[in-house]
Amino acid sequence: MQASTHQRQDFYIARLSMGSTELMFPQVDVVSIESVFDLVKRESSSFVIGVFELNGDVVPVYALTDQLELLYEAPEKRYHCAILRHQSGVFGLLCDDVKHLELHDIEFQSIPQCMRHETMPLTHLFSYASAAGEPKTGFVTNSDWIFHYLQQSITGGEQCLQ
Question: Any residues with CB less than 8 A from the CB of 52 and at least 6 apart, and which?
Fold first, then answer.
């Protein structure tokens, strides 16, 4: 068992679901949740699948598969967009569902060696129980890590799914 990296306490987390993947963000990273029906779609070869106009700002929106690969188009069943604040601004990430969770007495674990990679946007893992009592693993990230990951994927020329 790996050593804990943080003391136990209460955590306020936003769980963004994308297919079978659930990413956990600090709730303070989430500016708002928008409906995909308000998205102004863009037809281009860009990874920005659309934009939101939010308080006079144009917010670029991205979509990921459940393997965290960039998409050119919005998946059909993604109805929510989390607007996330990072160091330099805001961006949107399409998701199937967003839940705000208050978790108690969770213990963060380091990313296992087999999952570590410089481009992997995860910071920690933790175990928790779903509302139905099923054991789950939380994949922890934050908006800065995800934005950096998106930028690396775009500029690194990684293959994009259409």
Answer: 34, 38, 39, 40, 58, 59, 61, 81, 83, 92
Q: State the pairing for strand pair 57-62/89-95.
A: parallel
Give the model confidence (pLDDT) of 89-143 as tens digits. Answer: 999 999 999 999 887 767 777 777 776 666 677 777 888 777 788 888 888 889 9
Rounded to whole angstroms, the Cα distance separating 106 from 24 reads 13
Rounded to whole angstroms, the Cα distance separating 155 from 137 reads 30
Number of other CB atoms surrounding residue 53 within 10 Å: 10
The model's pTM is 0.81
Distant-in-sequence, close-in-space partners of 47: CB < 8 Å, separation ≥ 6: 62, 70, 71, 72, 150, 153, 154, 160
Alpha helices per DSSP H over 8-159: 143-155
The tokens describing 71, both together, are 């998409």
What is the Cβ-side half-sphere exposure of residue 3, based on CA atoms within 13 angstroms?
1
